[in-house]
Amino acid sequence: MGGGAWPAAEPMNAPVQVRPARADDLDAIHAIEVGSFSDPWKRDGFRDLILGGHATVVVAELGEEVVGFAITYAAADEGEIANVAVADHVRRRGIGRALVDFVLATMIARGARTVFLEVRESNVAARALYTARGFSELSRRPAYYHNPCEDAVVMRLAVPDALV
């Protein structure tokens, strides 16, 4: 996978639990966002998503600690993974995979036949995760990301009929 070795993943002491986000998760979600991305979303945007009901926002917990989150949108038979992030101190332990699997299962159960996402070209770990889940590159958006400027890789998952 990619161009180099990843450090060995440390085993989790407790299983990760994925659940719908609540307003009291906002500080943890935003802290993970700021620690994960060079051009993070604003705190108020997360608040609006959690309270507004126009997106699905879930968190991953280890014990009582929120250690990751995912945001998805759905319309008709399409879904979009808008954001996935895991706290730095627990990366490479399967939390991102658990979040992606959870949101994919949820979107498919609600009738999604195609799921899209965008990811930084340089985010080798995320691209490997999405590819392992059946996504393939659809197109590129030149200079889509800022700080640093970078292309977005648009990926698509065509949901097999057997899963719908």
What's the short story on this structure?
With 164 residues, this protein is of the alpha+beta class. The chain has 4 helices and 7 strands. Strands 1-2-3-4-5-7-6 form a 7-stranded mixed sheet.
Query: What does the overall shape look like?
Result: globular
Query: Uncertain segments of ≥5 residues (pLDDT<50)?
Result: 1-12
Helix content: 25-40%
> Would you report the number of β strands?
7
Count every helix, treating DSSP H or I runs of 4 or more residues as helices.
4
Distance between the termini: 29 Å
Oligomer: single chain
Strand order in the largest sheet? 1-2-3-4-5-7-6
- What is the N-to-C succession of helices and strands? EHHEEEHEHEE
Q: What is Rg?
A: 15 Å
Broad structural category: alpha+beta
What fraction of the residues are assigned to beta strands by DSSP? Answer: 35-45%
Mean pLDDT: 90
Largest sheet: 7 strands, mixed
